[in-house]
Amino acid sequence: MALFARVYDTILSYKGWLLSFVIWIVYSLVGMVAYALLEPSWSYTQSFYFVFTQISTVGYGCMAPSTTGSRVFTMFYIVVSVPIVSGALAEVFRPCVEGPYRKLDASLFQKLWFLRDDDDE
Question: Which of 36, 60, 61, 107 lies in disulfide reach of 47, CB 3.0 to 4.6 Å?
């Protein structure tokens, strides 16, 4: 029973990370399927490559939507993908940044007199 509780607590501690990762994967798969259907000459692999380059905002330019439907979809997909991917990456890298930031924050507030939260009344 203790093992189950530890596993459950571990899963809960990574809940935000897992949710962000799942949202990112589902969003990528939706784009991949949409491009595979909207672009008659693209395979699922090519569609995934295009989605990945667009979501990461690299956009190499070696592939471009050719149909009107895929171009309209691309406009909305990219506008929505920037906040989704930014939020997901922020949540994924939060544990890497949070610990050092707390240490810096605590030491900085202690050393700089004008940043201290003292009640000087």
Answer: 36
- For the stretch 20-62, pLDDT in tens is 788 888 999 999 999 999 999 999 999 999 998 888 878 787 8
Query: b/e for 56-76, b at 16 or more Cβ within 10 A?
Result: eeeeeeebebeeeebeebbee
The whole-number pLDDT of residue 45 equals 93
Q: Which two tokens stand for residue 32?
A: 């991949």
The amino acid that residue 119 corresponds to is: D
Please check whether residue 63 is in contact with residue 78, taking contact to mean a CB–CB distance below 8 angstroms. no
Half-sphere exposure of 34 (CA within 13 A, CB side): 17
Q: Answer positive or negative: Cα dihedral of 75, 77, 79, 85.
A: negative
